[in-house]
Amino acid sequence: MNSQPDVVVVGGGHNGLVCAAYLAKGGRKVVVVEKRPLLGGAAVSEEIYPGFTYSSCSYVVSLLRPWIFRDLELARHGLQILPLDCTFTPHDEGAGIARWGDSAKTREEVSRFSLRDAENLPRFGNSMVALSRFVKGMIDGPAPDPGALSPSGLMDLARAGDKLRSLDPEDAERLAGMMTMSAADFLGEWFESEAILAPMSVSGIIGTFLGVRSPGTAYVLLHHYMGEVDGVHRAWGLAKGGMGSVSESIASAAREAGVEIRTSAGVEKILVENGRTKGVVLENGDEISASLVVSGVDPHRTFFGLVGEENVDSEYASGIRSFRMRGSSGKVNLALDGLPEFACRPGNGAHLRGDITIAPSFEYLETAYQDAKDGRWSKSPFLDIVIPSLTDPSVAPPGKHVMSCFVQYAPYALREGADAWPSQREAFGDAVVQVLERYMPGISSLILHRHVLTPWDLEKEYGLTEGNIFHGELGLDQLAFLRPVPGWARWKTPVKGLWMCASGTHPGGGVMGASGGLAAREILAEGAAL
Ligand SMILES: Cc1cc2nc3c(=O)[nH]c(=O)nc-3n(C[C@H](O)[C@H](O)[C@H](O)COP(=O)(O)OP(=O)(O)OC[C@H]3O[C@@H](n4cnc5c(N)ncnc54)[C@H](O)[C@@H]3O)c2cc1C
């Protein structure tokens, strides 16, 4: 692009790329500037050790909005999602418990623990589908704001009211309860066996600084139930080639639409003059002028790092300051010399191909949370594991494997301070391997390489403030019309010409693309940068 662009998008995470693609399709000249040499942000594939491709941060796809998949023709741009069929939780005794795509098989497994729970599963599933359909409507458009008096705001509210009325009264009551209940209590209304309850409840805590018994986590659980793969509700999948394929396919669609993408091009400053943005200055000193800047980085980094607090309305700045980031998770990626086996379910069965959850009991999960509250990483953390090379052999050499372990709790703010993390990184990695060893004896001897990411690394390397994986907690007070600041949920900011499009905006975190796509729609609808 030789002439001046209309729009500069800061950050080539998947949301920045989605936003850029839609804006270019809408006739704008767009440049994306990404700090890292690789695109994708937290949706990235990295070959850190030759032959092994890690999905370094995010690892499963489910929430990616189907309309973005279609509009940007991501399949034509190379994206293939390989479904995962199972969630397996190992136990110290017995055979553990697996939940399968096949409901008859799941029923059989669950009945070993409770006949009543097995009978309740289909009713629970139907209710969650109805509730998540309702919420899904909210994540595919602007958040209805009860305080909005504009015609479009009132229309959004009216549409939400209609949807709520269409819910079965029991489900509507349940939805209201979910707003304040804990994941454990909500699930406890359906199930009695802890073998089912504990692994199911972890969807309520992923990425939050909350425990399964903390109020509000029932809603986070619902957020994770909204996914679909190929139209199958609640399905999760792996991106062939790793999560970077999601971002690369979006980047390819963006380039085709005319977007210029620059990597190793970190932004030092978003230029603001008299309350209006003028463009950006890169870390190498280059200046790019544009009448519109869209920030694809998190709200804290945008305003306190790039814009400068002196350029922001003080009320808005204090809203952003109190927007909670508080990272609570880390990641351990392993390159393995062969396949590990579970002591409780030996062999290389289909349970290894799914999502593996180390969440044996509420006590285990709550003890791990208590560690975080005390400013320590937990020695026995909740782990969410996948072995992508079993489903997608392209990510490891023949006979070898990659294993991705999402780890919680790992508080950003250690008692000794966040900067103590580098000296504790390897001990944290050792603790994760010890937990794996408890359930998969002998796995240590299979480890060829280990890549440990603490919340400090997520901040320093991937640009996630305080290592928060969602650019801000998914608490009820930080969602919908409150995200990131009440009254400013429609991607606009008080700085004229500056918009936001990443996970810190409605509808929030996860590899959804929704923030980027909806921000672009709003910018185009306003006729901005024409
Ligand atoms: C460990 C981990 C596990 C996760 N697991 C999952 C999962 O399995 N499934 C799921 O759906 N979600 C998961 N998530 C959440 C999901 O990955 C994120 O919510 C999502 O990828 C964020 O996308 P984004 O585009 O909004 O922001 P980001 O991906 O954070 O993109 C922001 C981009 O801006 C760049 N940047 C920062 N500063 C600058 C600057 N000054 N100049 C230029 N560029 C800059 C960054 O390098 C980055 O590329 C996980 C996240 C993490 C960290």
Task: Explain what you see.
- This protein is 35% helix and 18% strand.
- Helix 1 runs parallel beside helix 17 (514-525) and helix 3 (103-111) packs across helix 4.
- Strand 13 (276-282) and strand 14 (287-289) form a beta hairpin.
- The two termini are 17 Å apart.
- It has 17 helices and 21 strands.
- A 7-stranded mixed β-sheet has the order 7-6-17-18-19-16-20, sandwiched between helices.
- The chain has helices spanning 14-25, 66-71, 103-111, 115-139, 151-166, 169-178, 183-188, 194-201, 217-224, 244-256, 299-307, 314-321, 362-373, 388-391, 421-439, 455-462, 514-525; strands at 7-10, 30-33, 45-49, 52-55, 81-84, 86-89, 97-100, 228-229, 232-233, 236-239, 260-262, 267-273, 276-282, 287-289, 292-295, 329-336, 355-358, 382-386, 401-408, 447-453, 498-500.
- It has 3 domains: 7-47 and 59-80 and 241-323 and 484-525, 3-Layer(bba) Sandwich (FAD/NAD(P)-binding domain); 121-231, no CATH class; 325-465, D-Amino Acid Oxidase, Chain A, domain 2 (2-Layer Sandwich), CATH 3.30.9.
- By secondary structure, the chain is α/β, with parallel strands linked by helices.
- Bound molecules: flavin-adenine dinucleotide.
Helix content: 25-40%
Largest sheet: 7 strands, mixed
Q: Say how many strands there are.
A: 21
Mean pLDDT across every amino acid position = 93
What is the CATH architecture assignment of the largest domain?
A: 3-Layer(bba) Sandwich
Q: Radius of gyration, Cα only, in angstroms? A: 22 Å
